Amino acid sequence: MKVAALFILGCLVWEGMAKPEFPEQEKDPGFWKEWAQRTLKNALTLQDLNKNVAKNIILFLGDGMGVPTVTAARILKGQLSGQNGEETQLEMDKFPYVALSKTYNTNAQVPDSAGTATAYLCGVKANEGTVGVSAAAVKSQCNTTRGNEVTSILKWAKDAGKSVGIVTTTRVNHATPSAAYAHCVDRDWYSDGDMPAEALQSGCKDIARQLFENIPDIDVIMGGGRRNMYPRNTPDVEYPGDKKHNGTRKDGRNLVGEWTDRMKDKRGYYVWNRKDLFSLNPSNVDYLLGLFEPADLPYELERNKETDPSLTEMVDVAIKILRKNERGFYLLVEGGRIDHGHHDGKAKHALHEAVEMDRAITRAGLLTSIYDTLTVVTADHSHVFSFGGYTHRGNSIFGLAPIMSDIDQKPFTSILYGNGPGFKFVNGARENVSTVDYEHNNYQAQAAVPLSMETHGGEDVAIFSKGPLAHLLHGVQEQHYIPHVMAYAACIGQNKNHCHTNSGSPSLSHISPTLAVLLSVKWLLC
Ligand SMILES: *[C@@H]1O[C@H](CO)[C@@H](O)[C@H](O)[C@H]1NC(C)=O
Ligand SMILES: *[C@@H]1O[C@H](CO)[C@@H](O)[C@H](O)[C@H]1NC(C)=O
Ligand SMILES: *[C@@H]1O[C@H](CO)[C@@H](O)[C@H](O)[C@H]1NC(C)=O
Ligand SMILES: [Zn+2]
Which residues are the signal sequence here (predicted)? Predict the structure, then answer.
């Protein structure tokens, strides 16, 4: 009580005075000690490992969300709610287990999103540029596909009777989601219109088509990518006057029409805007296809809140549909445009995308329980994004370092890129950033080397996990280990010997007594 009152008083004083650099209470060693003791007490509860069966498994994939991006997004999230930001906790920060993931592709030290997606979805490392095929397949060579297909955890879950879903802010046939259902030697073969004639003649199929043909009826599909589903010269439903959004298919097929026909008597709905999405009651929907843009969804900062749902809103609807299956579900969620922001050198977009994915993680946490849901948050790879420069506590994450360069006597932003489109010389010298609006949404942070697209980074990325057997994701691991853990925890896919069937639903052979009590209490209450 006394502590709370002091805290509130402290906050009032803090609000009322000229803002000190950090809260007064931080001068008290007791503040730090009590905080650490609370954390320690919490950590000690983890000695009782959660060995339940993961009825539900969820993977949140932040495309390009390296560790510097996570830290900067955390500071941004705090600053958006009026705090300094450094002390803020992202939702993913609250997960009890963290590991590092080694992201290299079989043929690349610095990987791409296709080979990495094959690793964390299919459990097999692969060549860059390829999805759902092993490293025996060669990029863009159709004739190396057959016999080298590898299946994903989404398929293992579907085969086990679970409902499955894909939610992304990119095209639904972009690199990340496509490794969940497609086997393709070229991630850019979105529709048959994107494929060389030779590949089509040899029998290779485009990724959009594989979305609907490989795994019978993925229960929930949400994202962008309409134009790859319709025949050439079909105007887009939302932008009929904009020719660049015409359909791209050469085979004349209307994949959306075929899907809706197939769904006639199956409580399946197709929507292409936010209003129609929210007109649905998830308890009456068993299948959902939501394609909200011809290509990728807009950046969260530029989203038209009338027509396009946020990632959080899509995740909310997806879980409400999927969780109706008593055998549980697998959901892949991609914050896909963190990567695009970075490639453009536009850190503000990248970080707002990461914050939005974190909000989606919070929403998923409210709709599920750690007793029966394993949630994993990770990235496919990092970027050459950095922030530094001895900035003071609470400095705007998009702000300037407090010092000038001692070489060219000019200011510099804390955020910088190793390479990218932000490289800029003015009159033969580095631009003076004080003369431009470096907090603008589309500001491109300075880069050391000029490149039209900033590149991926090669360092490890984090894996955060909570729920049943989350502790198996610890230490420094190869990226392809991730789906093996998730499948083991859910008793799907290979090595199920530790699972035994008990009145229809699988369970683990070793359930700690404490958990058994907790579980039965939960059963009594439900
Ligand atoms: C596979 O296709 C490539 C061209 O994409 C060709 O060079 C190669 O000879 C073909 N290999 C076989 C075994 O047919
Ligand atoms: C787009 O479709 C319209 C209507 O069918 C057609 O007139 C136009 O030529 C198409 N444009 C492109 C670039 O395909
Ligand atoms: C950079 O721009 C600011 C704002 O216009 C100006 O005050 C400062 O003198 C400039 N510094 C250099 C080194 O040109
Ligand atoms: Zn990328």
Answer: 1-18
Report pLDDT for 501. 60
362-411 pLDDT tens trace: 999 999 999 999 999 999 999 999 999 999 999 999 999 999 999 999 99
Whether 273 maps to a domain, the answer reads yes
**What is the CB < 6 Å shell around ligand 3?**
409-410, 432, 434-435
Which ligand places an atom closest to the C-alpha of 380?
4
pTM comes to: 0.92
Distance 354 CA to ligand 2 centre (A): 36
Domain range for 367 is 49-80+96-384+462-490
440 assigned to some structural domain: no
Is the residue at 506 inside a domain?
no
The mean per-residue pLDDT over the stretch 165-194 comes to 98
Catalytic site positions: 113
Total domain count, the chain: 1
Structure tokens at 172: 């639904």
Angle at which helix 347-367 crosses helix 311-322, to 10 degrees, equals: 30
28 in any annotated domain: no
- The alpha carbon dihedral of 278, 337, 490, 288 has a sign of positive
| Domain CATH code at residue 193 | 3.40.720.10
Closest C-alpha to 424, from 438, 404, 440, 409: 438
pLDDT-derived band at 507 (thresholds 50, 70, 90) equals: low
Cβ atoms of 175 and 189 closer than 8 Å: no
* Ligand 1 atom nearest residue 199's Cα: 5
pLDDT at 518 over 70: no
